[in-house]
């Protein structure tokens, strides 16, 4: 077992030496997004009752929070995923963000989209304790992206809207291509990926990835 | 919407032109492995009854087959995954192959290993209609690899045991590094990945990936 471990480490080191070194690539911490839902004020009231307001469970970045409230989502083939977390505060449009694995489980065709870009995306039913909402569109698989401040962007040598490749150096070893850069004063440096991407690359929230030059 | 699509396609094409062309990389079809279990003759009898033999549902590559029989697996935190397909024929050691997503769901620490390399891997309980088996070790996450014949290996310019990177050119855009090459006369050309890897890269069985030079 130990010999095997040494052999594997040696192999990985030799591989790393043969590759171009990426230690100088700009380092970005990972933030893994589990499936979740954003709701309008109106949809919160339909699902939880007239005048109901979401309650905070945990503060997140950018003024968002994980709510205590959960819903069940049901796709057009009537398959359900229970206990989907609501993220507050309320938004102008309700939006469900799932993984590709979830979309297969639900039997729906959710497109890969940037948050907010829901036109023509998959329909989905949302069930709460006091009512149900049928979203004609709004179910997407989030497109991976990196949030950063203008200062980070300057240091990394990238601009808002750029597309980059990001290297994960670990046992599995994965490069994510077509990663969008989003720059805003309010953004904390983080690469947002979904649970499929995290599990396929064997990375978790807080792990460091590097932008390839 | 249409304008947006054209814009995206243009962006992807320009990105592709900026990258080194990989159209000349050796093409390999993908085979996605869902979670499954291999059993010893003894374990089949414990789970399904004395003298029981697995029945074929579907022929697979390399003389293997998907059996009609299913089991439930339970991790040390007593969480279960139902309807896990058995692959026949029986083997010398029982082995459960799951995804990283499954290992999180089960609450177990399954290592990433090549098939057959189960020493010190995660323990797991297997439940059948007539009995149960507790595997002290045997639960792994399969390490991604490419099966090929000696002729394919020659054409691709690789050898048994080599490690390569494999490029997926599509909407998500992913490069799988640390991919093992396994060469054998009996092997049909195919890259074996698990459901996490397939869903994260948005590829399915039969899609083509390319070995990077």
TrEMBL record, chains A, B:
Its cofactor is Zn(2+). It catalyses: propanoyl-CoA + phosphate = propanoyl phosphate + CoA. InterPro entries: Asp_de-COase-like_dom_sf, PTAC. One of its GO terms (molecular function) is metal ion binding. Its EC number is 2.3.1.222. It comes from the Bacteria. Belongs to the PduL family. It comes from Mobilisporobacter senegalensis. Pathway: Polyol metabolism; 1,2-propanediol degradation. It holds the Pfam family PTAC. This is Phosphate propanoyltransferase. The keyword Ribonucleoprotein does not apply. Keywords: Acyltransferase, Metal-binding, Transferase, Zinc. GO terms for biological process: 1,2-propanediol catabolic process. Involved in 1,2-propanediol (1,2-PD) degradation by catalyzing the conversion of propanoyl-CoA to propanoyl-phosphate.
